[in-house]
Amino acid sequence: MTVLSFQAPARFVAAAPEDLAVISRAAAGDLAAFENLYRTHAGWVYGLCLRLTGQRELAEDCTQESFVAAWRGLPAFERRSRFSTWLHRIAVNTVLGRRRSGAQPDLVSAERHAEALAAIPGDSDAAGPLDVEQAVMCLPRGARDVLVLVGIYGYTHEEAAGLLGIAPGTSKAQLHRARALLSAKLGLPPESP
Amino acid sequence: MSQPQARLDELLHTLPRFVEPHSELWPHIAARVQRQPRTARIMNLAAGLAVASLALLMARSALREGVQAPVTSTATSTPMTAASFSLPDAARYQSARAAMETTFYARLKLLRPDTRATIEANLQIIRKANEDIRHALGSDPASPVLLQLLNETYQQEFDLYRNVARNTEPTQGRS
User: Fold this and answer.
1) Which residues constitute the domain of residue B97?
2) Which end of chain A is more exposed for a tag (fewer CB within 10 A), N or C?
């Protein structure tokens, strides 16, 4: 028999300490408590949405939608997983839902990329975060999705595959492809297979 | 790890995971949540999930008291290995679930009849919650909250399978 369990992405776990009292108050309908949760987690959710969509405005819409969905779903939050993990899953599902509804075009214009990049803090040194960020945003969608979830936000391949509706093997292949493309864009030597 | 791989990882780790939204989003969110109170449907589904959680606890309790012994069946001693899943459309999920279910039903026969009945009744409660959420997803398939609730029922089902398997491990040889 196989044991199945949810594994909270390590980086999410370290992202923010959880205040169970605040979560309980928000679940009971306390809007001020929910604002507190928003202030703690909005940056993480927005960062994820921004990288998955590659568009600032759409990322803001998805962030809003994720928090509205979280508010509606909080009474059902069971605390089996961390609140941050639960919220980030909602955010990923929101972005993917928008994609399925056709709200997010396959190709994002250079102008939109520039806007998205401007939203991310960092310096403009050569091979600095913005160069890497730009290279990530230029990746094909499938490769970028996996790189963002696994390479940046710490999901396992199984979790990323489940969220994206692909097989874990495909997730691994997309990550390999993403890393190869990124290395080429950043002028790094190719990785060994 | 090769040097280029390490360098790429190093660069990826420099990316900020916390990115402040460009505009203040809270007023829009606050306005929307005040306009859209939690729906009765979500609350009902959440209540169903809470009952399912209770069912899981009851099943655990029944298991603690009702393991028949000694358990020495070789047909049911499939080793347990670690895996993880997210949503049930993953291929790995499907095969893992099938394996777990087979072992679960085989091990269930090793339990006392009253314990078995309790476990089966509680499994039905969890499955009913799952079915209700699936039904709700039919009219709102992209709902992140419903997807999350669905995920939780799967986790409950797996917890129950795992508990039965653990408590009837042949090597434990309880008496």
Assistant:
1) 39-79+88-172
2) C
Q: Are B42 and A143 in contact (CB under 8 A)?
A: no
- Using CB atoms within 10 A of its CB, is residue A11 exposed (0-12), middle (13-18) or buried (19+)? middle
For residues A74 and A156, state if they share a domain. no
The pLDDT tens digits for A120-137 are 665 444 455 668 888 898
| Cα–Cα nearest to B141, from A169, A82, A97, A78 | A97
Give B97-150 pLDDT, tens digit per residue: 788 888 888 888 888 888 888 888 888 888 888 888 887 777 676 677 777 778
Closest residue of A to B5, CA-based? A191
Q: How many domains, chain B?
A: 1
CB atoms within 10 A of CB A167: 17
Residue B75 included in any domain: yes
Residue A182 within a domain: yes
DSSP string, B129-175: HHHHHHHHHHH-TT-HHHHHHHHHHHHHHHHHHHHHHHHT-GGG---
A158 touches chain B (CB under 8 A): yes
Nearest residue of A to residue B145, measured between CA atoms:
A73
Would A2 be classed as within a structural domain?
Answer: no
Can you tell me the distance from the alpha carbon of B128 to that of A13, in angstroms, rounded to the nearest whole number? Answer: 32
ipTM: 0.75
Per-residue pLDDT at B59 exceeds 50 = yes
Between CA B144 and CA A99 the distance in angstroms is 13
| Residue A150 belongs to domain spanning | 121-188
| Cα(A13)–Cα(A175) distance, integer angstroms | 22
A163 at B interface, C-beta within 8 A? yes
In 3D, which of A46, A43, A85 has the Cα closest to residue A62?
A46
Bridge partners (DSSP) of residue B84 are: A5
**Domain assignment present for A17:** yes
The answer to whether residue B133 is domain-embedded is yes
Q: Is B151 on the interface with A (CB under 8 A)?
A: yes
Q: What is the mean pLDDT of residues B14-19?
A: 89
> Does A76 map to a domain?
yes
